[in-house]
Each structure stands twice: as structure tokens, then as C-alpha cells.
């Protein structure tokens, strides 16, 4: 659960990289997942909660006090709508009065966990890392989960106890292969039990008669899932469910979603309890981050494509400047992460000015050498 400053910086970059920093996301509708922010300056206490996209946080709310909410699913940017009174979005002013499908919680007012504390918390000397519930998307202190946080790569997702009780059928799955007071297995045992049996087959793999099916979520999104019409896995697990108190959060192996039953009755159950997104394995934050990282990796190829029409000397100059900037920016971010300092616009501007100075010196030296 503990991360180095560099790992935290890389993770934060991946979250932001998946969102457009220049164009308001409103025209994209209710996006599957995006980085979301709340503006304390514009939405004071007593007002309705509201969220804005990355581009609006950077442009419309520059200089305001902002809460970074990480990512939210099925969200549409509120910037400049009815919730902001007379404030108008600079990037997309013609918005509907309200986004009726948006779901809000106390995070939009800078409060987190069952303890209703801010993050970072000035009164908390430890200021421990928080963990996000994949259902309500609230953030929790480990000490308030009443469940041991397991440091294991196979245990990547958390569902808080409140959300578990809102979809109580999940306790049946938790009793089989999750980590909670229901199941005292070690992380290694849980990982092995979940991934497969001694023959390498999935313990809960779909049987004969499986087919691809579609499910429509409350957010009007279609999810393609593998449906097993032969039997209901949930009923089989129910027969083995451990009857214990259900008062703690649950940590799940990352690939647990693939083991959920997709028979017709279970799919109705997911919709009724508001967790139909669990059937979409690309819904996860890790999938979003990986997609963002892959998009970032295409920057080098985009550069080569853009400079293909230039002559050889110009191409070398562009590549030189690009690599120089990339290297210097990487070193700046690394130094800031090591020193736990923020990278301010002023610091970045100083870096650009230094690169310009170096370029002038280099060009001057080349001119002197030529003469």
C-alpha cells in the first residue's frame, strides 16, 4: 500500500493523461471515466455539489481552490451550469442546466471516508494514504475499513462495507475468494485459489453454453459480457457461504470481476443494485491508467509523423529539442518527487527559459565554428 513519491507522481500523471487538458469534456457526454475536480471557490457550503473536468479546472478555475477527486465514472462536466449561478464556462458555455445522471458524494466538498475528514488532513500527523471504493468511489483511511489491508498485487480492488450491504449478494463471492473477516486466507492463498485449481483451470470458469451477451446500464451504456446459460454460479456459491457478521470492507483479487455469474437473473440483480459496471472489466481504474500510459507512449511516433516533411537538418533539430525537453522535464519531475515539492508553473517556466538559453549558446557556438 505504500508508494514512493516517484510512483505516486507516475500514477497521478497516468490519471491526468487520460483526460483532455485543453478541451471541455462536456461534448463527450457522460464519459466512462475521467479525472474530475471540484471548485471550493465556486461551490460554497450550502450549494449543490458540482464537478468539473481537467480542462475546466485548468482554464475556467485557474487560481481557485480546487479539490482533486481523482477519477469518476459516467460523469459529465458541470462547469458553468445552473449550479454555478452566474459563472460561465469559458470553454463550453452552452451547457444544459443540470447533468441529471451525475452522482455526487461528500468528496465534492473536500470530505472523505466515514470520518468526514479532508485530505490532506492538517490535524492528522500521520496523514496516511487513502484507498478508493470501486462502487461509491469514496476514499477511506485503512484504519476505518475494519479490514486488514493486504499488500498483494492480486488484491487490487476495494469495496467498502456500506456498498457491500447495498449489493448483499457480493458477500457470497467474498466468502469464497476475497479478503475480509469472512475469509481469513493469506494473500498468497487467496491469489492461488482465485487464479485456478491445480490443473490450471479457473475455479469458476464459464461452462458449456456460454455466449456473448449485452447489458444496458442505468447510465445507458451497453456492456458486452460472457453469459453462462447453463447454470447460476451465484447459487452454487450460496450453498457454501460462510455465515458471519458482515461489518468490514472487502479487498478483492483484481481479476475477480471475470468470475461473476452472468446468467440472466444475476444480470438483473446487478442492475437493480446499481453495480452493473462490475461486469465491465475495462471499467477499472487500472485499465484507465494503462490506456492513458499507452496513449502517452505514442508521443514519439506522433513526433516522427509530424516532422516527416522537414529536411534532414530540420528533423535533427526538432528531435534534439524534443529529447532535450523530455530529459530535462523528467529530471525536474524526479527531483521534485524526491524532495516532495510541487512543480509550479513558475518552475516549469524557468526550465523553458533555461532550455532557450542553452539553445542560443549552442547556435552561437555552431556559428563561431562555421566562421
Description:
With 371 residues, the protein is of the alpha+beta class. It has helices at 5-17, 54-59, 161-166, 170-177, 187-195, 233-238, 264-272, 285-297, 299-306, 312-338, 345-370, and strands at 31-39, 66-75, 130-132, 139-141, 155-159, 210-216, 222-228, 250-253. The protein has a two-stranded antiparallel sheet.
Quick take:
With 371 residues, the protein is an alpha+beta fold. The chain is 35% helix and 13% strand.
**What is the tally of helical segments?**
11
Biggest beta sheet attributes: 2 strands, antiparallel
Low-confidence stretches: 1-6, 185-213, 215-229
Topology as a string of helices (H) and strands (E):
HEHEEEEHHHEEHEHHHHH
Which value, in Å, is the CA radius of gyration?
Answer: 24 Å
Structural class: alpha+beta
- SS elements, strand count: 8
Question: What quaternary form is this?
Answer: single chain
What's the shape? globular
Label this structure with key terms.
371 residues; alpha+beta; two-stranded antiparallel sheet; 35% helix; disordered N terminus
Write the layout of secondary structure elements.
Elements: H1 5-17, E1 31-39, H2 54-59, E2 66-75, E3 130-132, E4 139-141, E5 155-159, H3 161-166, H4 170-177, H5 187-195, E6 210-216, E7 222-228, H6 233-238, E8 250-253, H7 264-272, H8 285-297, H9 299-306, H10 312-338, H11 345-370
Antiparallel strand pairs: 1-2, 3-4, 5-8, 6-7
Amino acid at each position: 500500500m505504500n508508494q514512493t513519491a516517484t510512483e505516486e507522481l507516475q500514477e497521478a500523471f497516468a490519471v491526468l493523461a487520460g483526460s483532455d487538458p485543453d478541451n471541455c469534456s462536456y461534448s463527450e457526454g457522460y464519459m466512462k471515466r475521467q479525472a474530475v475536480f471540484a471548485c471550493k471557490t465556486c461551490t460554497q457550503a450550502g450549494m449543490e455539489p458540482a464537478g468539473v473536468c481537467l480542462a475546466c479546472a485548468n482554464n475556467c478555475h485557474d487560481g481557485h481552490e480546487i479539490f482533486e477527486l481523482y477519477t469518476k465514472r459516467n460523469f459529465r462536466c458541470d462547469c458553468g451550469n445552473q449550479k454555478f449561478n452566474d459563472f460561465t464556462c469559458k470553454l463550453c458555455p452552452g451547457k444544459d442546466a443540470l447533468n441529471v445522471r451525475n452522482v455526487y458524494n461528500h468528496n465534492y466538498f473536500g470530505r472523505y471516508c466515514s470520518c468526514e475528514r479532508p485530505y490532506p488532513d492538517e490535524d492528522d500527523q500521520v496523514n496516511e494514504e487513502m484507498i478508493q471504493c470501486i462502487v461509491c468511489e469514496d476514499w477511506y483511511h485503512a484504519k476505518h475499513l475494519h479490514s486488514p489491508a493486504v499488500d498483494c498485487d492480486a488484491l487490487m480492488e476495494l469495496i467498502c462495507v456500506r456498498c457491500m450491504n447495498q449489493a448483499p449478494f457480493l458477500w457470497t463471492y467474498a466468502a469464497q475468494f476475497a479478503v475480509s473477516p469472512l475469509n481469513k486466507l493469506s494473500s498468497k492463498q487467496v491469489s492461488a485459489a482465485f487464479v485456478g485449481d491445480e490443473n490450471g483451470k479457473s475455479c469458476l470458469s464459464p461452462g458449456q453454453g456460454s455466449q456473448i451477451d449485452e447489458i444496458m446500464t442505468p447510465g445507458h451504456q451497453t456492456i458486452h459480457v460472457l453469459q453462462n446459460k447453463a447454470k447460476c454460479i451465484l447459487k452454487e456459491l450460496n450453498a457454501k457461504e460462510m455465515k458471519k457478521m458482515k461489518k468490514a470492507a472487502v479487498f478483492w483479487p483484481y481479476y475477480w470481476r471475470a468470475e461473476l455469474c452472468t446468467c440472466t437473473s444475476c444480470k438483473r440483480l446487478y442492475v437493480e443494485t446499481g453495480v452493473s459496471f462490475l461486469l465491465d472489466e475495462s471499467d477499472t481504474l487500472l485499465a484507465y491508467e494503462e490506456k492513458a500510459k499507452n496513449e502517452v507512449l505514442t508521443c514519439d511516433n506522433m513526433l516522427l509523423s509530424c516532422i516527416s516533411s522537414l529536411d534532414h537538418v530540420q528533423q535533427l533539430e526538432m528531435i534534439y529539442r524534443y529529447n532535450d525537453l523530455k530529459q530535462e522535464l523528467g529530471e525536474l519531475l524526479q527531483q521534485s518527487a524526491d524532495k516532495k515539492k510541487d512543480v509550479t508553473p513558475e518552475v516549469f517556466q524557468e526550465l523553458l527559459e533555461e532550455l532557450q538559453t542553452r539553445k542560443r549558446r549552442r547556435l552561437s557556438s555552431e556559428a563561431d565554428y562555421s566562421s
